[in-house]
Write a structure and sequence with these properties.
The complex is a heterodimer of chains A (740) and B (233).
Chain A: H1 5-10, H2 15-25, H3 31-40, H4 43-46, H5 51-54, E1 64-66, E2 74-79, E3 82-90, H6 92-97, H7 99-115, E4 120-130, H8 136-156, E5 160-167, E6 176-186, E7 201-206, H9 240-253, E8 259-264, H10 269-281, E9 284-288, H11 301-306, E10 312-317, H12 322-331, E11 335-343, E12 347-352, E13 355-361, H13 362-366, H14 379-385, H15 399-407, H16 416-419, E14 430-432, E15 439-442, E16 449-455, H17 458-463, H18 465-481, E17 486-495, H19 502-522, E18 526-532, E19 536-537, E20 540-541, E21 545-554, E22 571-575, H20 591-597, H21 608-623, E23 629-632, H22 637-649, E24 653-655, H23 665-670, E25 677-681, H24 686-695, E26 700-706, E27 710-713, E28 717-720, H25 721-736
Helix pairs in contact in A: 7-8, 7-9, 8-9, 15-25, 18-19, 18-21, 22-25
Chain B: E1 2-7, H1 14-24, E2 28-33, E3 44-47, H2 67-77, E4 82-85, H3 87-95, E5 101-103, E6 111-119, E7 135-142, E8 146-148, H4 151-159, E9 163-168, E10 187-191, E11 197-200, H5 218-232
Classes of the chains: A alpha+beta (740), B alpha/beta (233).
């Protein structure tokens, strides 16, 4: 072997993988060719450790128009001739190195995936994970990431309507920055990222190509974090203005008869984009690297092929019609250049100034090795799951003091200080703004609406990756159902540690099994996804964090429900349980247990049958107009959910029964048993709600009344609404403000 | 009547404005490309929000040199109604059609929130459908909306009734606490001396239907339409 270990390390290929390349080619790869393999066989592009697992996910339903993996994003039919393209993508590693540009270009990348489908992007969501905000570097990362999302998203005119921010020590060295984009498209106008026939031209449009982002996919996204500190130049730099213009120009270009394919140029740049297009078209391809417009002089073919310069797209265009395309892009002051030609055959042939510098069978590049594994459950996990939670010491505060403390916890407090930095009104479709359980958008020209959310509790996934991922799906769907929307599709962002270690292999396998089980229970497909592995620092993996993005449909968007209590004397009803308060079992993996006691332990549980029935009752009640408010119980349990309904509605509430779980008010108030939804209903509608629950065999408890200016729970907890409101509204700013 | 909606590269409020004046209020509306120089067919011109030309250098600083702005200036000089919203307000200030500048928000953050605007002058063609002192619930969304001008200019604007909107609380009280960006005297919108050019930072086109949080923004477009109809009659 002539190749050095240093070269292999640079492109993150193993010696065994190199030997597989030699075996497939029947010769040693050339230097440029080796770069192509490094990019396409990277974890980021090649899905080496996840492809076999992802194939097991449910991917079909009557609504699926474009299946996962087939194109840049999955597409779901909404009816009325409309469809939705949706996808989540991670930009964790770039954001850890350079948070502002990392997060900004993450937004840019996922938007390109969506308009590559011919869809107009109509919403963005962000799912973020950081270490504890008491750490100065975490605050730097947090502010940089929020600034990057704000700067890119606001400039481009796509509303940022939701997402999550979650803090836990596990993410301290490796924050997670996942972005979801949703696009609207007319049914017959879905674009494909392929050419139609040999002779079709390959056009590069948008930005010039520079040296930024070389080895982004093979380097940053496929290594652990301590290797990255010197890799800042592998982070791309974004220009949202250019992307905004590119969106308009590309959507317009798809109306030209000669434009037959559109493809995002993202991770691994032209290499990945062009070769994937050729593979999808079942054709060969000639690429002329010398024609690629450059941002700087002296770039080698290797650098041009692997640059991840942002705001570039590829078009497949029927030969002879390219002048129309040039005119259109010229109108938008954008470059469009023919850089290749599809041809009959199976090879990608790369030319530089008339010289062929590389010729490789496409199948050898795109068919990355696939690693399968079956790893037993580690003993440490069994120990954590079996921890005895009844021995957790009782806090030395009153229940009222603890409620205020929990409301001000960074994971529970209002995130308004963040999302007020994002434009969530632009495009004038936002019916439920960020801050609810899910965002709701109307679809102009129809009665319909869609609901969107992202969800994943990494702590619960750590304690049981199978059940935890099923809970992420259940909770995402619950967030939709409380607005009245019916869940119809999911997308996932898999964020895990090093897949070469047994623990992470176990977590991946279990998470996919849990996602499958839950998606099947709801009867909905996973239409797209992304995997980010190697999220580790100093050999310690992050909590497994399979972020779930969910899409719901409201047939009549006027009939939706919101979180806040509405009127004095409305009755407070808990769906999914026959008693107001939780038991000690609910402490497993709870926010309370980590935030107050520093413990991450216990066995999370989910009854999926009950979950589906509870959500059905909630949706039916919202649609029938029986509900004044609806809120999902999640982090912080019953007490914080009630407080949120009261604070948002600016009206107090009282619960009759005192919180008590075998002598523990803390477990009763903050336990996180699943499948519970808090409703407030007019007394006139109570009997109909009860009948609906009874019909679906769903337990229900009538627990109290809306009204007054305090939150009072039986006789052992009473807090002024104004104090609760201050804790919840200002908790985030207090926890994240810089101090000495 | 026919609204012309100017589209610079980077404008994103064009489609929202079209929806508000055409989809909701039933008027004719057409987009005007930034290279166009003829505006004769229009009865009112809107410079919508967005980030024209990426807002490189300074917000609105490049847009003012586009061919369409010469035509807009001529249109305004003939007395035609022109409304600049958010980035459009910035372009109007850069072009000299309105006095003053829009600086970075004093807290240095982008801010997307609902605001309450107190109507300070209901005799303009942009506010005649409102009552003086009433508040309009309209969202804002900007990083650079901190209106400033020299003391003489501010005095002239105040004395002439050219300050049309101020940030206020829901009861119409104008206080420093409620000021979302540091604008002098809580100024959210002004007109030129002749009263036919309005610049405002909040987005009336984003408050055009109850389903999306409110329709107070229609007051402004309805005022323009009413005045046009009366003028024609």
């Amino acid at each position: 072997m002539t190749v050095s270990q240093e070269t292999l390390d640079e492109i993150a290929l193993s010696r065994a993988e190199y030997e597989a390349i030699v075996d497939r080619l029947g010769r040693e790869p050339g230097p440029l060719e080796l770069g192509l393999f490094g990019a396409l066989w990277s974890e980021h592009c090649g899905y080496k450790h996840t492809k076999a697992l992802l194939r097991t996910l449910p991917s079909s339903s009557e609504r699926v128009l474009v299946a996962p993996g087939a194109e840049n994003a999955g597409v779901i039919d909404l009816g009325d001739g409309l469809a939705i393209a949706m996808k989540v993508e991670s930009h964790n590693h770039p954001s850890a190195v350079e948070p502002f540009e990392g997060a900004a270009t993450g937004v840019g990348g996922i938007i390109r995936d969506i308009f590559a489908m011919g869809a107009r992007p109509i919403a963005l969501l962000n799912s973020l994970r950081f270490g504890q905000p008491s750490d100065a570097r975490t605050r730097y990362l947090l502010n940089g990431v929020i600034g990057g999302i704000s700067s890119y998203g606001n400039c481009i005119g796509i509303p940022d309507v939701g997402g999550e921010i979650f803090f836990s020590d596990t993410y301290k060295g490796n924050p997670l920055v996942n972005a979801m984009c949703v696009g609207l498209i007319e049914n017959g106008k879905i674009a494909s990222a392929s050419a139609r026939e040999p002779g079709d031209l390959l056009l590069l449009v948008g930005a010039d190509t520079g040296r930024d982002g070389i080895h982004g996919a093979s380097g940053l996204a496929s290594r652990t974090f301590e290797e990255q500190t010197e890799m800042r130049s592998a982070v791309q730099v974004g220009n949202p203005f250019l992307e905004k213009v590119l969106i308009e120009a590309c959507i317009e270009a798809l109306d030209l008869p000669g434009v037959v394919g559109l493809q995002d140029c993202g991770a691994a740049g032209i290499t990945s984009a062009a070769i994937e297009m050729a593979e999808r078209s079942v054709m060969g391809l000639q690429l002329f690297v010398d024609r690629v417009p450059r941002r700087e002089e002296g770039m080698t073919p290797y650098e041009v092929m692997l640059s991840e310069s942002q705001e570039r797209m590829l078009l497949a265009v029927t030969a002879g019609t390219e002048s129309e395309v040039f005119d259109l892009f010229d109108k938008w002051d954008l470059d469009a250049t023919v850089i290749g030609e599809f041809e009959a055959g199976e090879d990608v042939r790369i030319f530089d100034n008339g010289m062929m510098v590389s010729s490789t069978p496409i199948i050898t590049l795109t068919d990355a090795p696939r690693y399968e594994f079956s790893t037993p459950k580690p003993d440490w996990l069994t120990t954590l799951q079996n921890a005895e939670l009844t021995v957790v010491p009782m806090p030395d505060t009153t229940a009222a003091e603890m409620l205020l403390k929990m409301l001000s916890a960074p994971n529970i407090a209002s995130k308004f200080p963040v999302y007020r930095q994002y434009d969530y009104h632009v495009q004038t479709n936002t019916v439920i703004e960020p801050g609810g359980d899910a965002a709701v958008l109307r679809l102009k020209g129809t009665k319909r609406g869609i609901a969107l959310t992202t969800d994943c509790n990494g702590r619960i996934c750590y304690l049981d990756p199978e059940v935890g991922t099923a809970i992420a799906v259940a909770e995402a769907c619950r967030n939709l159902s409380v607005t009245g929307a019916e869940p119809v599709a999911l997308t996932d962002g898999l964020n895990f540690g090093n897949p070469e270690t047994p623990d992470v292999q176990f977590q991946l396998t279990e998470a996919i099994a849990g996602m499958t089980r839950a998606a099947n229970a709801f009867g909905i497909p996973i239409v797209s996804g992304n995997a980010s592995l190697y999220n580790e620092t100093a050999g310690a993996a992050i909590f497994p964090t399979p972020i779930i993005g969910a899409l719901g449909v409201l047939d009549d968007v006027e009939k939706h429900s919101t979180v806040g209590f509405k009127a004095e004397n409305d009755v407070i009803v808990l769906l999914g349980s026959d008693s107001a308060w939780d038991t000690t079992d609910g402490l497993a993996g709870s926010e309370y247990l980590e935030f107050v006691h520093g413990r991450v332990e216990g066995q999370p549980a989910l009854d999926l049958d009950l979950e589906v029935r509870v959500q059905t009752v909630c949706r039916d009640a919202v649609r029938a107009g029986l509900v004044a408010s609806a809120h999902d119980l999640s982090d912080g349990g019953m007490a914080t959910a009630l407080a949120e309904c009261a604070i948002i509605g600016n009206i107090g509430a009282s619960v009759t029964e005192s919180p008590d779980a075998g002598g523990r008010w803390d477990a009763a108030m903050f336990g996180e048993a699943q499948s519970r939804i808090l409703l407030s209903v007019s007394p006139d509608n109570l009997d109909r709600i009860k009948a609906l629950a009874h019909d679906h065999d769903v337990p229900l408890a009538v627990i109290g009344l809306v009204g007054g200016d305090a939150l009072s729970f039986g006789d052992n907890c009473s807090v002024l609404l104004s104090d609760a409101s201050d804790a919840w509204k200002n908790g985030f700013s207090r926890a994240t403000s810089d101090r000495d | 009547m026919k609204f012309g909606i100017v589209v610079f590269p980077g404008t994103w409020s064009d489609r929202d404005t079209h929806h508000a004046v055409s989809g909701v209020l039933g008027q004719d509306a057409e987009y005007i490309w930034h290279g166009d120089e003829k505006l004769d067919q229009f009865d009112a011109i809107v410079l919508p929000g967005g980030f024209s030309y990426g807002d490189f250098l300074r917000c609105g600083a490049i847009a003012r040199f586009s061919p369409v702005m010469e035509a807009v200036t001529a249109f305004a000089e003939r007395g035609g109604p022109v409304i600049g919203i958010c980035n459009g307000f910035q372009v109007l200030c850069e072009s000299g059609l309105l006095p003053g500048v829009l600086m970075r928000n004093d807290h240095l953050e982008f801010r997307c929130i609902w605001t309450d605007l107190r109507v300070e002058n209901s005799s303009t063609i942009f506010t005649s459908a409102s009552i003086e002192g009433q508040t309009l619930h309209i969202p804002m969304s900007h990083g650079e909306g901190n209106y400033q001008a020299d003391a003489d200019t501010i005095k002239r604007l105040e004395d002439n009734g050219q300050v049309v909107f101020r940030y206020a609380d829901t009861n119409g009280n104008v206080t420093p606490d409620i000021n979302p960006n540091g604008s002098i005297n809580n100024i959210a919108g002004i007109v030129n001396e002749h009263g036919n050019v309005l610049g405002m930072m909040p987005h009336p086109e984003k408050a055009c239907e109850k389903l999306i949080g409110g329709d107070d923004g229609n007051v402004i477009f309805t005022s323009i339409i009413d005045n046009f109809v009366q003028a024609v009659v």
